[in-house]
Amino acid sequence: MTDLTDQVAIVTGASRGIGKAIALLLALQGAKVVSVARSAEELEELNAKTQGLAIPADVADADDAQNVVDETLSRFGRLDILVCNAGVGSFNLLENVEAAEWDRIFDVNVKGTFLMCKAVVPHLKAQKKGHIVGIASDVSKRTFEHGTVYGASKYAQDAMLGSLRKELRPYGVKVSTIYPGMVDTYFNDSHPGSPELEKTHLKPSDIAQAVRYVLEAPPHVVVDELMIHPLTQEW
Questions:
Q1: Residue 158: its pLDDT value, please?
Q2: Predicted confidence band at 187 (pLDDT cuts at 50, 70, 90)?
Q3: Mind telling me the catalytic residues?
Q4: Mean pLDDT score of the chain, rounded to an integer?
Q5: Where are the chain's structural domains?
Q6: What is d(CA 179, CA 141) in angstroms, rounded to the nearest whole number?
Q7: Could you write out the DSSP letters of every residue in the chain?
């Protein structure tokens, strides 16, 4: 298994939910975690536990995304892992979706993934190793009513990561995509911890363990895609 000790990992959307669980678990495994989100206060609380680096940033802003990578390299001198977890969503009939809402969802889910990958790829290619993990969704593989915008953004993110996987494979850089089902988090303005959701929703820690699984796979093992079903919690 690959040892995560002292590997430098950027985790976006790290202030709460899935991203927070990923950051905490990677730190527990010995990684140096760079936590990224827009909430500076929540990041500082997380960083007190991970003892890494907290960078408030908007991943949909090109300057912010590049600054995250620059600060990471300045602090640690290396970069091994990028976890693209930042995501937003809303669910509505197509005719009720405002153009601004479309832009917001695509900015974070698609453009944010694009900009963070664009900023790290030159470094990973140069060192001929590294790992990018995208947190997509099971709706990257299916459609559903009220999901026209969110589903479209996740299909786009999935296609981008799939193409990037082929671009980076000759350089020894892995790209893995994880497709969670419903997760008990703050996503879509929900409030986690409801007892009725325990049997139907995954926990953020389940997704964090999936990320750990793909990152710790031996160098010769490539886990391109990993679907996690909320009812069986199998992966």
A1: 97
A2: low
A3: 150
A4: 91
A5: 8-228
A6: 9
A7: ----TT-EEEEESTTSHHHHHHHHHHHHTT-EEEEEES-HHHHHHHHHHH-SEEEE--TTSHHHHHHHHHHHHHHHS---EEEE---------GGG--HHHHHHHHIIIIIHHHHHHHHHHHHHHHHT-EEEEEE--GGGS---TT-HHHHHHHHHHHHHHHHHHHHHGGGTEEEEEEEE--BSSSGGG--S--GGGTTTSB-HHHHHHHHHHHHTS-TT----EEEE-TTT---
Given this model, what pLDDT does residue 192 score? 59
Structure tokens at 14: 């790290």
For 146-171, give one letter per residue: b (16+ CB within 10 A) or e.
ebbbbbbbbbbbbebbbebbeebeee
Residue 79 contacts residue 72 (beta carbons within 8 Å): yes
Per the structure block, which two tokens stand in for 22? 């990923």
Phi, psi of 174 (to 5 degrees): -90, 145
- Residue 180, beta-bridge partner list: 228
pLDDT band at 235 (very low <50, low <70, confident <90, very high): very low
CA distance 216 to 76: 21
Cα(222)–Cα(39) distance, rounded to whole angstroms?
34
pTM metric for this prediction: 0.91
Contact criterion met (CB below 8 Å) for 138 and 123: no
- CATH code of 8-228, in short, is 3.40.50.720
Each residue's pLDDT tens digit, 27-78? 999 999 999 999 999 999 999 999 999 999 999 999 999 999 999 999 999 9
Measured over the CA atoms of residue 37, residue 59, residue 209 and residue 81, the dihedral's sign is negative
